[in-house]
Amino acid sequence: MNTVPHATSLRRAPVQRRSAERLTRILDACADLLDEVGYDALSTRAVALRAGVPIGSVYRFFGNKRQMADALAQRNLDRYAERVTERLEETGDAGWRRALDAVLDEYLAMKRTVPGFSLVDFGNQIPIGDRHAEPNHRMADRLTELLSGFLGRRPDDDLRRVFLVAVETADTLVQLAFRVDPEGDEKVIEEARELLRAYLGRVLD
Hints:
There is one protein chain. The chain is mostly helical. The chain contains 9 helices and no strands. The longest helix has 27 residues, at 65-91. It is globular, with a radius of gyration of 18 Å.
């Protein structure tokens, strides 16, 4: 899946297929190096070498490594939305609890398997992007957009606030689960799932 991040996270959006493929290689290299060396030791030159592109190709898209990591976070969010959408299509009209499982399970799967995700995810782990557009707000907006039709609810401010509270809660508890166990402590995750069901049930039932 070669999702290209939204153009606002790039200095220049790719127009041709070859350019888009080069951007994908750059972001893939960035993700791999984040797992290997961490954000502080990450450099645009190392990313260019790993991606097999000239350093100028990196600077064509990004002014610095922070912009590159922000684009990776946006790509993660886009891919996550695609995965959740696919799960919702599979579950059909199975109710909001199945939708919650899809939202949480796909996030956990990405956290465990997607390169660089544990450090960047949607921008929560390192200080990237616009400080006024916090990643959890971006996530709540996307979930409101994705789930409002599935739930038969208007995507209004009330629903967005519910999802923002749920996202902030889930973020804190999932971080705890991965501090307890590098693979995510299942008991903590189940406690998080039950807490979210209780909170959302008050609003969505």
